[in-house]
Task: inverse folding
């Protein structure tokens, strides 16, 4: 079975996150809202730091992450707003900083992340 464009891009972004964040990603990736026509749109959900459920939304090139909070999300600021112009190293570094700001230092230290 051949993957469509949105599935390929969602998989590529997931691989980049896993490569850069390593063991800070504490679950498998789940894809949803995969849409290819008339534009590419999808969501990728995963757990980070055994602490937060995260959703990455991609819509016509714009992308960003939020902490899942029930039916709503808490947006995480990031300077990399457009995937085709993004430096994924910077994106992941900023995501890591935003998440670690919200996690107790003792928890991060205990798990070897600080």
Result:
């Amino acid at each position: 079975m051949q993957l469509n464009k949105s599935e390929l891009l969602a998989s590529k972004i997931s691989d980049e996150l896993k490569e850069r964040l390593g063991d800070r990603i504490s679950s498998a990736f789940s894809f949803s809202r995969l849409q290819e026509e008339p534009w590419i749109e999808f969501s990728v959900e995963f757990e980070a730091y055994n602490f937060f459920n995260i959703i990455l939304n991609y819509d016509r090139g714009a992308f960003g992450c939020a902490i899942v909070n029930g039916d709503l999300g808490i947006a995480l600021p990031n300077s990399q707003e457009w995937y085709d112009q993004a430096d994924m190293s910077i994106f992941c570094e900023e995501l890591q900083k935003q998440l670690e700001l919200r996690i107790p230092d003792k928890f991060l230290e205990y798990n070897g992340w600080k």
The two ends are 42 Å apart (CA to CA). The mean pLDDT is 93. Helices lie at 5-21, 88-101, 105-110. The chain has one domain: 5-110.
